[in-house]
Design a protein that fits this description.
single chain; 527 residues; Dipeptide-binding Protein, domain 1; D-Maltodextrin-Binding Protein, domain 2; 17 helices
């Protein structure tokens, strides 16, 4: 073999050895795409159960698929495992016409799988994050093998958005698993099967997971042999791996972007994160019962300064859960930076007796250097008005175990710095604020019980006239701004960096990593 060919194969051969995959004897090169697909906000190494995942759908959708997904522009729904669908006139029945697809073990995908998946996903005993969101389903019927009908008790404007993240599951492979054992079953990380362009191959705890091409994929065989997801503790490690050529893609922070923009070997992808970052006030602790304290927190934080100096201007201040003009009414309180006003509010509320200078844990799963700087800035600004917060950065599994615990220690998370999807569909943040979504039903981890907020969301979700929905979500925004269930901070831009060696690659800065119409079977490597 010529020296140049040996050099070309060097990195791929090392990767091959690391993943335990076998290179066909006739192959002259490895067609392997390696990326840091779970780097960034909410990255969750090792969680392969799409019903419990809160992020990482860019990766999960390589081998699992939903009925429908978003277009790559995030502006409409497109069919995936459902080649088409229609909604009844009263918006309480959805009929899905299924694609001719097969599971990775060769069994046909049918309407029985759709029924099985929805029944499992709406059963809280399965540990599903979708239980509350799908509680309006009254039944799923299968008129024939390629038709599934989902019926709702009432119209739900967020239903289609929700099911873009409900990955179809194989009834024949999972029916024998007791529902109570589904959430943490070894099946997810050892032998899962989906319908996507890649098949699960191997997972090495905390290091990587490898997928191999599905040659029988209905939309065409993938153009590479395998895709590997490398795990990194933070973006700094991923950035170093990008520069060295070990990986071809990763999410990066905004302060990494200028150097990559200047490098002709990479392409920077930029877009709206559709995630609102917020300080969550745990309503189960007495600290935040008085709205004047919550308003003091908002006035104490110089959001404009943080956006300018830490995010480099790549964010918009949020005065409620939304920044899109259609959902933001006039007359909102901008909560301008005003430490004096903050101190006065705290004095009027009796902060000295409520807490004084006792330390308050501020917990987050954001573990990047940029996020650490944000936390430090918030800590310093709150200290100036007499609120003593102590940041605690944990990994996503620890965070989720803390905030979703069946018997939570509320003193362990009196205050959180987190983010939640606020688009492309505005119904996304309902799960974090509606009283009906308090765990284990949903993601209202701050245990918010505010009638004005819940009723505003309920009205928006029940609105059947699309033309009236923006006004409904303006009412949500107004209630959030007045009652402050969260201290909303900003909506950032999100960035990915792709090596120019990676061709026909689609990545969208979508909330939770998507999913969206990425067509991974088309991804290729330059020859």
């Amino acid at each position: 073999m010529r020296r140049r060919t040996v050099a070309k194969l060097g990195l791929s051969s090392l990767l091959l050895s690391a993943t335990g995959l076998t290179l066909p004897a006739q192959a002259q090169d490895l067609r392997t795409i390696t990326g840091g697909f779970d780097v960034g906000p909410g990255g969750m190494p090792g969680n392969f159960n799409p019903m419990t995942a809160t992020a990482g759908f860019t990766w999960l959708s390589l081998y699992f698929e939903p009925l429908i997904t978003y277009s790559a522009e995030l502006d409409k729904f497109v069919g995936l495992l459902a080649k088409s669908f229609e909604m009844s006139a009263d918006q309480t029945s959805y009929t899905f016409h299924l694609a001719d697809a097969k599971w990775h073990d060769g069994k046909p995908f049918t309407a029985d799988d759709v029924r099985f998946t929805f029944d499992l996903a709406r059963n809280a005993a399965s540990g599903s994050n979708f239980a509350a969101r799908l509680s309006g389903i009254t039944g799923v019927t299968a008129p024939d093998a390629h038709t599934a009908v989902v019926k709702l008790s009432a119209p739900n404007a967020g239903f289609l958005d929700t099911i873009t993240k409900v990955m179809m599951l194989p009834a024949h492979a999972m029916a024998a698993i007791p529902v109570a054992d589904v959430a943490r079953n070894a099946w997810w990380s050892t032998a899962p099967i989906g319908t996507g362009p890649f098949k699960f191959n191997r997972y090495v705890n905390g290091q990587y997971v490898a997928l191999v091409a599905n040659p029988d994929y209905r939309l065409g065989a993938p153009k590479v042999d395998r895709v590997v997801n490398r795990y990194f503790e933070n973006t700094a490690g991923a950035v170093a791996a990008l520069r060295s050529g070990e990986i071809q893609f990763s999410y990066v922070e905004s302060d990494d972007v200028p150097n990559f923009r200047a490098d002709k070997n990479f392409r920077v992808i930029e877009g709206n994160s559709y995630v609102v970052n917020y300080l969550g006030f745990n309503q189960e602790v007495p600290l935040w019962k008085d709205v004047r304290v919550r308003r003091a927190v908002m006035h104490a934080i110089d959001r404009a300064s943080i956006i300018k100096t830490i995010y480099g201007g790549a964010a918009l201040p949020a005065n409620c859960g939304y920044v899109a003009p259609a959902f933001v009414p006039a007359g909102l309180d901008p909560y301008a930076y005003d430490p004096a006003a903050a101190r006065k509010l705290l004095e009027d509320a009796g902060w000295a007796k409520i807490n004084g200078d006792k330390p308050i844990t501020l917990i987050t799963y954001y573990n990047t250097p940029q996020a650490s700087n944000v936390m430090a800035a918030i800590q310093a600004m709150l200290a100036q008005v007499g609120i003593n917060v102590v940041p605690r950065i944990v990994d996503v599994p620890t965070y989720n175990a803390t905030v979703y615990a069946a018997k939570p220690d509320f003193n362990a998370f009196p205050l959180v710095y987190a983010g939640l999807q606020n688009g492309p569909d505005p119904s996304g943040i309902n799960i974090g604020l509606n009283e009906k979504q308090i765990p284990p039903a949903g993601a209202n981890i701050m245990r918010v019980r505010m009638p004005t907020v819940t009723s505003a969301f309920d009205a928006a979700l029940a609105e059947t006239d699309a033309g009236k929905r923006p006004a409904r979500y303006q009412a949500v925004c107004k209630a959030m701004n007045e009652d402050l269930p969260w201290g909303t901070l900003w909506v950032t831009s999100r960035y990915g960096v792709v090596s120019n060696k990676l061709k026909d690659f689609t990545w969208v800065p979508a909330p939770a990593g998507g999913p969206y119409d990425a067509h991974p079977e088309r991804w290729a490597l330059a020859t």
